[in-house]
Amino acid sequence: MIPSTQADVRMIAAAVDVARRGRPRSKEREREILAAALHALVTEGFDAMTIEGVAAAAGAGKATVYRRWHNKIDLVIDAIREQVALRADIVDTGDIGADMRSFLTKLQCDLLGPNGALLATFMAERLRHPSLAQAFEEQYVSQKRAQLRRLVRRAVARGDLPADSDIDLLAGIGPALMIYEFVQRAGRLPRDLPDRIVRQFFE
User: Fold this and answer.
1) Is residue 134 situated within a structural domain?
2) Is residue 77 part of a domain?
3) The model's pTM
């Protein structure tokens, strides 16, 4: 769910699992701030949003935000990761086709789900702000890329992929094609796209 009003910010922050109840207030406050940051990103854009505005929307002091995040780049990246990015896990079962299909299907669900508009906004902002793109690369994308490289490298070692495979290219081709199609089709994706990518490159 993308927060569209201050009431939504409060609602998202309050929607905490029972397991989270009883944790320090600082955790609840952090979720309120991250929800407010997403609201600001979608409704105002990265340029216009401010730490002060996010703090006010979350009912927090500016100093509280700055104690946790040094700048709005770090704040936005944490908010994106909290909302969607960590759900597309990469699992190595020893079957490169099945593992890639699983990962790309999860990525597709994120792109087509309720957070699709949020992801589209973030992708557009990354293109306009190299510093935001670089920070996201360092803090999130590089980790996923390293996991995908290991997946491909092991498949090559098993003989499931040709010995002369371009590991870097194969590691990045799936997510790159998914995101390209998502942007080109204005937020839509063919349902069979993960299968088509896997059949073309990994089977």
Assistant:
1) yes
2) no
3) 0.70
The identity of residue 6, as a single letter, is Q
What is the token pair recorded at 77? Answer: 């990246």
Per-residue model confidence (pLDDT) at position 25:
55
Task: Give the residue from 43, 70, 97 where a domain finishes.
Answer: 70
Segments forming the whole domain that contains residue 191: 84-201
Same domain, 102 and 171: yes
Q: Would you give the DSSP letter of residue 21?
A: T
* Site of tokens 């896990």: 89
Q: Are 32 and 9 in contact (CB under 8 A)?
A: yes
Is the domain of 88 the same as that of 66? no
Residues near 176 by Cβ (< 8 Å), separated by ≥ 6?
none
Which pLDDT score is estimated for 113?
80
Residue 4 has pLDDT above 60, yes or no: no
Structure tokens belonging to residue 133: 């793109």
pLDDT at 2: 53
Residue 28, pLDDT score: 84
For residues 119 and 88, the answer to whether their CB atoms sit within 8 Å is no
Tell me: pLDDT of 30 over 70.
Answer: yes
Q: Where are the alpha helices (DSSP H) in the chain?
A: 6-14, 25-44, 51-58, 62-68, 72-83, 96-112, 116-128, 130-136, 142-158, 167-184, 193-201
How many domains are contained in the chain? 2
pLDDT digits 0-9 by tens, 96-111: 999 999 999 988 988 8
